[in-house]
């Protein structure tokens, strides 16, 4: 007696994720519930799956940075280069300086101009390896020189 042939199951095509440069994901914080949302780069707005609020995506090329609110510890996003970010939760204004700015100091040994991340305590000179403390204020240095 003929055996009915079961339909041959077609194996699912292996999913090959797009190579680097394909669909890139970016992040933003929902304007409604403050959840972190992922969206494909190029989208102009993101609808939150949690609260359905539509959050506008900053124009492409806008570099976003993140910081954590010093008062309520909410993750805040802001446009890189901004100097202050107001928390949408507690309305505290957080200074964004430390996150993205670079300061300069002269090497205490060879006077080479060094760059360092704002907020760093010391900078090691790439030329002479002297460690220059940047925690001290300029006035302290002046006192040392005038004494
Ligand atoms: Zn939301
Ligand atoms: Zn806050
Ligand atoms: Zn030096």
From TrEMBL:
Residues 30-54, 69-93, 107-131 form the Zinc finger LSD1-type domain. It comes from the Eukaryota. InterPro entries: LSD1-like, Znf_LSD1. Coiled coil: none annotated. Pfam families: zf-LSD1. GO terms for cellular component: nucleus. Keywords: Nucleus. It is found in: Nucleus. This is Zinc finger LSD1-type domain-containing protein. It comes from Acacia crassicarpa. The lineage of its organism: Eukaryota, Viridiplantae, Streptophyta, Embryophyta, Tracheophyta.
